[in-house]
Amino acid sequence: MTIDLKNQVYIITGSGRGIGLEIAKAFAENNCTVILSDYNEDSLAHAQKIFDESGYHYRAIACDITKEDHVENLVDKTFNEFGKIDGLINNAGITRDNLLIRMKNDQWDAVIDTNLKGVFLTSRAVAKYFLKQRYGKIINIASVVGLIGNASQANYSSSKAGVIGFTKSIAKELGSRNVTANAIAPGFIETEMTHVLSDKAKDEFLKNIPMKRPGKPKDVANAALFLASSMADYITGQVLTVDGGMVM
Ligand code: NDP
Question: Which of 97, 119, 193 to mutate to test ligand 1, by most ligand atoms within 8 A of the CB atom?
């Protein structure tokens, strides 16, 4: 069975670069209309250039997922233009790592606001349309550290554990209307987010990966494609780890 997302419309947050951009490209390659979205204008322009050059079908809408009015605009504009929304990929996320006793309130708040409240705002905004459509897929990019924790990432791990609890709750709430919600928990993936890690931290991750190599954004994009495809229509409330076996 091939994956064909023809005539489908997916919103992908934080798709200006990194994993989000890779997911956006993979979806567009499979004939999906992609709503590129990011709060960074340079990242968004960069993604648009790639999409223009590749002839992909897309719209670009700037959106800071921590701002309710931005989120409502993103979702309403998409629905008003296309008359439907097939899916939402909550990908935008940030880190503000620090040891617990040194962690500043603003480091805690920024991560929870983006990674958890942002996911709530976007999911609530699409859910009103999904319930009416009696169809929709929410795919949340969590993290393995939401399952196992990580030193210096109490804020980030809490946000991602929250995303997993949120995913399961809304899967239960929306399932009877044919709306699914699943999470992908990537392990150590090569992007700008992990580029800044020290060699020691990278070695530590690699030691715990049975496959002895980091993952690529494409690995996460493939998992998202599967969850978006009709092959995953009866899968909801699940966490799919994409981590070379780090967590099992
Ligand atoms: P990047 O930092 O490379 O990309 C994140 C993107 O999200 C950027 O384009 C960023 O914009 C955007 N973004 C951040 N905050 C907001 C906001 N408030 N509103 C809209 N867009 C925003 O990260 P990755 O691609 O590595 O990560 C993507 C997702 O995958 C995240 O949720 C992350 O937590 C998760 N993840 C990543 C792993 C990894 O190893 N890389 C492992 C596990 C999970 P800007 O360009 O301005 O920064």
Answer: 193
